[in-house]
Amino acid sequence: MDGCIAPRLVLNDVTVNLSAGTLQNASGSDIPLRAQSFAVLRELVRQRGRVVGKDALIDAVWKGTAVTDDSLVQCIGDIRRALGDKNRVLLKTVPRRGYRLVLPIDDVPAVRPPRGSMWHVLGLVALLCFVIVAFWPRTTSRLPDPPRVAVLPFVNLGADPSVDSLGKGVAEDIISMLAQSAGVAVIARNSSFKYGQGPVDVRQIGHELDADYVLDGSVRKSGDSLRIVAQLSDATTGRSMWSQRFDRTASGSSIQHDDVTSQIISSLIGEKSEIKRAQYRQAWESQKSSLGEFDYYLRGLDLYADAEDSGDNDRAGAVWAEGLRHFPNSTLLKVKLGWYHLTAYRTYRDKDADLHAAKAAELVREVLAADDLSFEVRRDAYWLNAFVLMQSHDFDFAVRQAQEAVALSPYDGRMLNSLAEVLVCAGDYRTALGWIDQAAAWDPQIKTHSHAHRGNAYRLMGRHAQAVIEFQQVPDLSAYMNLSAAISLMQLGKPAEARRWVASASGMQPRLTLSRWAEGDCYRDPQIIKTELAFLSRAGLAN
C-alpha cells in the first residue's frame, strides 16, 4: 500500500505532510509532534482503514527495540491531540485488537494512471465512481470510541500495612468489572497501576495514558471499621466529577468489599452515570447543523433516561427518529427508537399501542439481522428483544435473550432490575427475585423502585401480604403496579382498599381499562390473566 500514500493529506483541518514529517493547522502554523508519534501516524496512514495490532505498530516503529505498550499509548494520545480528535472518530481504539485510522473520503489519495486511451477511459470511470461515492448521502457516521477510564490502586491511609492489598484489590475488581461493561473502556492494570503511590496529577495521568477519566481512592481501617473513598475526575480539566464514601465493618482479617466495588461500577456506567451525563452535555452543546449519529443518540437518551410521562418519551422518540432520517442504517438509533416504541406500548398504553408494539418488533429484528453490531447495541438489542418476545409469549427465547444481555453487561443494575420482569412473566419467580435483590445492592438509586418489581413477583407467587408491604414502600408507584397491589388486596379480602388503589391508577392513566390490561397479558400461565381481570373488575376498574 506504500505506493498509494499521498505525500499530503488533511485530517480535521490539519495538513499532514508525510514527506516532510510535519503537521500544520488551517492557518499554516506548525503543530508539534514527536518523531516516534509521527512514525506511528505514518504507519496508521499506510494501513488506513485496517485494524493494526499493537505488536505490529511497535515492530514497525521501534524495529526490535524493547518498549512497553505505554510508549505506544502515549504516541496514540499525542496523535489524537495533534489532530484534534477528542472524540476518537478518526483514530479509533478497537478493544483487545489495536487501532484503526478512518480517513474521510475526501482524503483518499488519488493515483495517476499510465498514459494511453484505455487508461484514460478507465481513469474517467474511476473519477465518476469517486464523485458518486463522495456525494452520495451518508447513511452512517463514524461513532466515537467509548470514554477511557484509568483506575489507580486505592491508597492505604491507615497504619495497618495489611490493608495495602485491599486497596489494590478494590481497584483490580473495578478494572475487571468495567472491562465487562458497556459504554466505557478501561485502561489495563499494568499501565494504570504505575501511578497512585504518590500525589496524583490527574491531568498528567490522562495525558500519558490517553484517558478521559481517572478513578482513584483510598482505604482506611481502624479497629473493626473500614472506610473506602472513591473519586472520579475529568482527566482534561482535573475537576472532580463524582465522589462517594463507603463505611463498612471489617470483622477480623476478613474484609468484604464486593458491594462497594459493585456500587462504584453502577456510578460509572449506565444511562444516569456521571460519565454519561458529561456526554449528554456535549451533545446538547453541539450545533444542530453538525449533529452526528452519536449526538442524536445521546440527546434522545438524555430525555428518555429522565422521562416522567408520555410527553418526555415522545420527545426522546422524535430525536431518535430525526437522527434515523439522517443516518437510516444506524443500528444504534434503530435500537433506541425501538425502546421508545416499546415504552409507548407497555408503559403509557396510548391509543396507538398496537402500532408501537409492532414497530418495536420490526426495529429490533432489523438490528439483530445486521452485521458487526457494537457491544452496546447488541446488549440493548437483546434487552429490547427479551420484552418483545415476552409480549408475543415466546417465553423460552425471551429468557435466553435476557440472559445474553446480562452476560454482556453483568454489572448493570438497572438492566438486571428491568429484565427480572421477563423472568417473572415466564414464571421463574425465585431467579427474578435474586436479580432484583442483586440490582438493588449494586445500584442504591433503584432500591426504591425495586420494591415494586419485588411486590409483583410476590403477588404472582401467592404471597399477597408481602406483596402489599413491598408496594407500599414506593412513593410514586406506577399505574400498572397500583393495579397489581389492588389484586393482592382483593386476594386478602380488602376490597375497599383495593378500590382506592384502582382509583389512583385510573387517575394516572384513564385509558388503562380492563381491556387494556388484557392486551398486556404476558404470562406463561393463561389462568393468571383471567384471575387478574376478575379481581380488577370487582375492584372497580372500568371496562
UniProtKB/TrEMBL annotation:
GO terms for biological process: phosphorelay signal transduction system; regulation of DNA-templated transcription. The chain crosses the membrane at residues 118-136. Residues 6-103 bind DNA. It comes from the Bacteria. Keywords: DNA-binding, Membrane, Transmembrane, Transmembrane helix. Residues 6-103 form the OmpR/PhoB-type domain. PROSITE patterns: OMPR_PHOB. GO terms for molecular function: DNA binding. Gene3D superfamilies: Tetratricopeptide repeat domain (1.25.40.10), TolB, N-terminal domain (3.40.50.10070), Winged helix-like DNA-binding domain superfamily/Winged helix DNA-binding domain (1.10.10.10). The keyword Iron-sulfur does not apply. This is OmpR/PhoB-type domain-containing protein.
